[in-house]
Amino acid sequence: MILVTLIACLLLTVGEALPQNPSGRYCEHTATSRNCWGEYDVDTDYSEVFPNTGVVREYWLTAQNTTLAPDGYERPMLVFNGTFPGPTIEAEWGDTLVIHVKNDMQHNG
């Protein structure tokens, strides 16, 4: 009886230690199994299932008209924060983005 209880506890402990992916299985990403990685696999609907990293990334953009010469010839351009190309927006999968946009264009678009 003690042996059965011990085996059952070990099975429950191992089962809890392995995270389940949304399809209900745990899979390990290996050289022979490239279609899964821990909690996620190729069948995961990534528009509905994604991690919550708890990271909020905040950016401030200002849309402006200016004259620049990116290819050597001056031309009117729409730029963000006065630069072309505009600033890089970086985020990881599961991050929350807050982007503030200010319209400083002379002719409003």
TrEMBL record:
Origin superkingdom: Eukaryota
First and last residue of the signal peptide: 1-17
A matching Pfam family: Cu-oxidase_3
Domain named Plastocyanin-like: residues: 63-108
Keywords for the protein's UniProt record, in alphabetical order: Signal
Coiled-coil regions listed in the entry: none
Gene3D superfamilies: Cupredoxins - blue copper proteins
SUPFAM superfamilies: Cupredoxins (SSF49503)
Protein family: Belongs to the multicopper oxidase family.
Protein name from the UniProt record: Plastocyanin-like domain-containing protein
